[in-house]
Design brief:
The complex is a heterodimer of chains A (173) and B (249). With 173 residues, chain A is mostly helical. In chain A, 64% of the residues lie in helices and 3% in strands. Chain A contains seven helices and one strand. The longest helix of chain A has 24 residues, at 3-26. Chain B folds into two domains: 2-70, no CATH class; 87-246, no CATH class. Chain B has four helices and eleven strands. Chain B has helices at residues 2-12, 25-36, 48-64, 73-78, and strands at 91-99, 102-110, 116-123, 138-140, 152-159, 175-180, 186-193, 196-203, 206-210, 224-230, 235-241. The longest helix of chain B is centred in the N-terminal third of the chain and has 17 residues, at 48-64.
Chain lengths: 173, 249
C-alpha cells in the first residue's frame, strides 16, 4: 500500500470508528486514561494498517482492551505501586451508574471474561460474533459463554437474598 | 426468552455512557493528523526503545487531546475513581515483612464516600507510622461492604521496586492481601503455586504477604491459589489467581 492509499484508508478508519473506540474506552476507564488508550490504539492501527481484518471495529476494540490492560501494568511500574487486580473486588467496581446493587453484586460473581462479554453486548452493542473477536474467541465459544453468563446472572439475581452462601471445598478437586 | 432480555436490558441500563462519548471534532482531527504524521513501519516485535518512543508519542498526543467529556461526580464516584480513605480513622489490621528492612502494613478505614477502604503502606520494621496516603495500593468501596458472605476476596499489587529478579534480596515483591470470612474460622492462610508455597501473615480476618517467587510469574506456576485453613488443617476457602497479574512486561 503506498503512502497516499494508506493515509486515505487510515482516515476512513479513524472517521468511522473513533467515536466507538472512545466510547468503549471511556466506559471502562477514567477519561485521562481512556484518551491515552484511544490514541495508542489508532497509532497501532496506523502502523499495522495492512494487517487489520475487514470488520475493523472488533479488531480496534481488542487492541484498546489490551492497551488499557498494559497501561494498568505500566502505571504500576511508573508509580511504583498500583493496585493491579482484585479477584473478588469490593463494591467500588460495580459497573452500574444507577446504583443497582443487586445486579452489581451478582455481576461481580461472574467470571471476569464473562463480565466483559456481557458489557460488550449490553453496553457497546456488539453482536456475539463481534464480541468474540474482541476477546479473541471463536463465535461459537462467545455464543455459548454468553448464554451461560446470562443464565448464571439470572440465577444469581433470583436466589433468595437472606440465604447465607458458604463456600465449601469441592470434594472432587 | 423474556427473562434473558431482562438481564441484558437491566445491565444495559447501567451503561455509564448510553449514548456514547461525545466526540470533540477538532480534538479528533488533531489526533488523526498527529498519527498520520508518524512514520509507518512494518509491524514487528517492539524493542524496549521502540516501546519508549511510542509511549512518548502517546504522551504527546494525550497532551494535545483535551478532555471532551466530563463525568458527573456521581458517576465518577460510582466508578470508584474518587473514593479515598479517611486516613485519620485508619486501623492497622495486619503487617508482614516483605523485603530487607521493609514491612508492609494493611490498613482498614472508612472511605470519604461512606464506604470502606483497604490499603497498604510500607515502612521500616517497628511501629507502623500512621498512613497519609495509599502508598502501597489499595481500593475503596463507595458504600458499606456487601452483606453477601464472600468466603474470601483478594487484592494484590506489583511494585516497581520489585523489578529485581526472583531471589534478589532488594525490592518489594508482589504483594497479596485479602480477607477471609470470619465465620469460616480460618487460622492460617497460604499462597500455593506449582512448585512452592508460602504462609501469609493472617490477623483480624485479613492476610498479607510478599511473594518474590511470583514476580513476573510464568504460566508454568499455575495453578496459583490462596488457601485458608481452619485449626484442623481443613481448607475452608480458596481462590485461584491468574499468573498474568504478576507480570509487569
Amino acid at each position: 500500500m503506498d503512502s497516499s492509499a494508506a493515509s486515505t484508508r487510515f482516515e476512513q478508519l479513524f472517521r468511522a470508528y473513533y467515536g466507538s473506540v472512545l466510547s468503549y474506552a471511556r466506559r471502562r476507564a477514567p477519561s485521562s486514561v481512556a484518551d491515552d488508550a484511544v490514541a495508542e490504539t489508532f497509532l497501532i492501527a496506523w502502523k499495522r494498517l495492512e494487517s487489520i481484518p475487514r470488520g475493523e471495529l472488533p479488531w480496534l476494540l481488542g487492541v484498546t482492551r489490551r492497551v488499557l490492560a498494559n497501561q494498568r501494568r505500566r502505571d504500576a511500574t511508573q508509580e511504583r505501586v498500583t493496585l493491579l487486580w482484585a479477584a473478588e473486588p469490593v463494591a467500588d467496581e460495580i459497573p452500574d451508574s444507577t446504583l443497582d446493587h443487586e445486579l452489581g453484586l451478582a455481576f461481580l460473581e461472574l467470571d471476569e471474561r464473562d463480565q466483559e462479554l456481557l458489557r460488550l453486548v449490553a453496553w457497546d452493542g456488539l453482536a456475539p460474533a463481534e464480541a468474540a473477536r474482541v476477546l479473541g474467541w471463536s463465535p461459537v465459544r462467545a455464543r455459548v459463554r454468553l448464554h451461560r453468563a446470562r443464565t448464571r446472572l439470572r440465577n444469581l439475581l433470583a436466589r433468595p437474598v437472606t440465604k447465607e452462601k458458604r463456600w465449601k471445598p469441592d470434594p472432587t478437586s | 426468552m423474556e427473562a434473558r432480555s431482562d438481564v441484558l436490558g437491566r445491565l444495559g441500563a447501567t451503561n455509564p455512557l448510553p449514548h456514547g462519548a461525545r466526540v470533540d471534532q477538532p480534538t479528533a482531527d488533531e489526533l488523526c493528523a498527529s498519527i498520520l504524521a508518524q512514520p509507518r513501519q512494518p509491524a514487528r516485535r517492539w524493542t524496549s526503545n521502540r516501546r519508549l518512543r511510542v509511549a512518548a508519542v502517546v504522551v504527546a498526543l494525550a497532551a494535545i487531546a483535551s478532555p471532551t467529556l466530563a463525568f458527573s461526580d456521581g458517576v465518577r464516584s460510582f466508578l470508584g475513581w474518587d473514593s479515598l480513605p479517611v486516613f485519620e480513622k485508619a486501623k492497622l489490621v495486619v503487617s508482614a515483612p516483605v523485603a530487607e528492612s521493609t514491612v508492609a502494613h494493611l490498613w482498614e478505614s472508612p472511605s470519604r464516600t461512606g464506604g470502606e477502604c483497604l490499603f497498604v503502606t510500607y515502612g521500616m520494621p517497628g511501629k507502623a507510622e500512621p498512613p497519609t496516603q495509599m502508598s502501597g495500593g489499595g481500593a475503596c468501596s463507595l458504600g458499606p461492604r456487601p452483606t453477601s458472605h464472600r468466603p474470601m476476596w483478594l487484592m494484590g499489587s506489583v511494585s516497581g521496586f520489585g523489578t529485581a529478579p526472583p531471589g534478589a534480596a532488594a525490592g518489594v515483591p508482589p504483594i497479596v492481601e485479602g480477607y477471609v470470612d470470619p465465620e469460616l474460622d480460618a487460622t492460617r492462610v497460604e499462597i500455593r503455586w506449582n512448585g512452592g508455597s508460602k504462609e501469609l501473615a493472617y490477623a483480624n480476618d485479613y492476610f498479607l504477604g510478599g511473594v518474590r517467587e511470583l514476580f513476573d510469574a510464568p504460566p508454568r506456576l499455575r495453578p496459583i491459589r490462596v488457601i485458608a485453613y481452619d485449626a484442623q488443617g481443613h481448607e475452608v476457602a480458596q481462590h485461584e489467581i491468574d499468573p498474568a497479574w504478576f507480570r509487569v512486561r
